[in-house]
Amino acid sequence: MSTPQLLFKNRRPGETVFMEAYKATGGYSALEKALTKSSPDEIRNLVKESGLRGRGGAGFPTGVKWTFFPSDAPGPKYLVCNCDEMEPGTYKDGVLLAADPHQLVEGMILSAYALQTDVGYIFIRYAYERQAEYLRKAVEEAKAAGYIGKNILGSGFDFELLVHGSAGRYILGEETALLNGLEGQRPNPRMKPPFPATRGLFGRPTTVNNVETIANIPHIVNGGALWFRDLALTPGSSGTKLYGLSGHLNVTECFELPVGIPLREIVENYGGGMRGGRKFKACLPGGASTPYLTAEHMDVALDFDSLEKVDSRYGTAGVTAFDDQTCMVAATLNLIQFFARESCGWCSPCRDGLTMMRWLLETIENGEGTPEHLEMLKDQLKNISGNSFCALAEGAMGPVAGLLMHFEQEIVDHIEKGCCPFRD
Amino acid sequence: MAQEEKIDSVGLLDENGLAYFIAHAGELEHPRELVIDVLRAIQKNHGWVPDEGVELTATILGLEPIDVEEVATFYDKIFRRPVGRYPIHICDSICCWSNGGEELAELFQQKLGIAFGQTTEDGLFTLLPSCCLGVCGQAPAVMIHQRHYGPLSADDVDELIERLRREASE
């Protein structure tokens, strides 16, 4: 059975769809329907009923997030789309925008109407300049078609949409750091509360949503909440999901598949198995901050709840697979090097804790580790978890927790042999 | 807002760019939101952002230079020191790492005879480590002037360097 293609409906290799082709497959029909027939309240309720959960990694229910937003408050309010997408192993938003940028533009206008915000920003990472150019073109086309501007489709609703190019750094994906970045401030994360819904961009009520989350809104408006829920394979889940495959799989492409698809399907079917006839050893199921799954998890459904039950996370569904010749200590060291370097340095559990963690993993990987180093690693995991200012260090603990949960013996082997058992 | 005639871009922005930013800053309630745009424009023209670029950005946006500096130094894709004509960002994150990223980085260093952070004597190439570039399905990958190249084999590296050398000499 093939999955209905929503987000990748218009996707063709090497091509980018703009207004004419986008409209030809039903583009902007959701916007026309909503602005002429539905109230903002109705759209917000529809999104809540659809069960859509944030596609940026945290998985918070979008409709619930939107209920926190004071849509009737007077004065400027903002909708911000987070396209910082810098979590290693995650590239789905980049693929989506390269194929079909109008989906995000239509989604932004619809979401802004639902939330009654008059200005929207798309915050896009430096490395996605090509996608930023496509978006700028799509925004211009939408303006020319009367979908952006004053009194859109005679509804009395005004909306302006801006594309903001960033200049690197993973921390900008943290929503309050992103808001500082948008304002032109040094992008350290902000203290929460107040949450962005109360005091966000320029101190005004703001909602920050991921690209894929917002791109789903037109489809939900067109297909309805029940239809959207039924797309998922597991009870309590809803929708399709973009799965970006990477690592040692034969096929490392991005697929639109149902939420709740078993890991085995991803690895054996869509990923085409492991390269060179090797065996599957482990994977990051949803980006660099999600604890490893192993071969024993092959039949686990990839969705938010099922993965929490096995002490991992759905994250962004960017699946990075490792074969049986991969040293998991070295892989975890690589991940921690990333997080340590991308720490903004604001709080000590992150700034110093991750540096310490990197040193410990380096010592063990280099064959200089002792049983004390293993104890320190466990201790450090406890010290950092729950104690950092924002979610960066918390996320960094994902792979370390996974390493200790599933591959502690591999650490012990390094210590006992006095070298990395995977190196010649 | 700052007056156009008083601002000298010291060659870091062309006339149109300068006029655009001054006009745009004048329209915005929060001109500071343009900091990255101005810095990126200066870098595009000049290759990197010298002290004068930080001062120019501050002048255009009505800020103190320190306000600009604390932003500029945060981002790894804003260069506050000279770089070569082609800064090569080599991804060292997990997907590239699992597909020979370390060997690729080694190869670039060998071929160009420089280490990370250094620039070749002819001023053409600078090697920089980078976190995930967002093309994880095409690992191992590098980025040059916001264009991605991957997956790169040893032969591809030779060809890429050769092509850029040719482009530079034209």
Automatic annotation (TrEMBL), chain A:
Cytoplasm keyword on record: no
The entry's keywords: 4Fe-4S, Iron, Iron-sulfur, Metal-binding
GO molecular function term, any single one: metal ion binding
InterPro entries: NADH-UbQ_OxRdtase_51kDa_CS, Nuo51_FMN-bd, Nuo51_FMN-bd_sf, Nuop51_4Fe4S-bd, Nuop51_4Fe4S-bd_sf
Keyword Acyltransferase: no
Domain NADH-ubiquinone oxidoreductase 51kDa subunit iron-sulphur binding as annotated: residue spans: 329-374
Regions that span the bilayer: none
Short name of one Pfam family: Complex1_51K
Coiled-coil residues: none
Family under the similarity heading: Belongs to the complex I 51 kDa subunit family.
NCBIfam families: PRK13596.1 (NF010120)
Name this protein carries in UniProt: NADH dehydrogenase subunit F
Originating organism: Malonomonas rubra DSM 5091
Lineage: Bacteria, Pseudomonadati, Thermodesulfobacteriota, Desulfuromonadia, Desulfuromonadales
Automatic annotation (TrEMBL), chain B:
Family from the record: Belongs to the complex I 24 kDa subunit family.
UniProt cofactor(s): [2Fe-2S] cluster
Organism: Malonomonas rubra DSM 5091
Co-factor note (free text): Binds 1 [2Fe-2S] cluster.
Pfam family, one: 2Fe-2S_thioredx
Protein name as annotated: NADH dehydrogenase subunit E
Keywords: 2Fe-2S, Iron, Iron-sulfur, Metal-binding
GO MF terms, alphabetically ordered: 2 iron, 2 sulfur cluster binding; metal ion binding; NADH dehydrogenase activity
Keyword set includes Metal-binding: yes
PANTHER family with a match to the protein in the record: NADH DEHYDROGENASE [UBIQUINONE] FLAVOPROTEIN 2, MITOCHONDRIAL, NADH DEHYDROGENASE UBIQUINONE FLAVOPROTEIN 2, MITOCHONDRIAL
Residues involved in [2Fe-2S] cluster binding: C91, C96, C132, C136
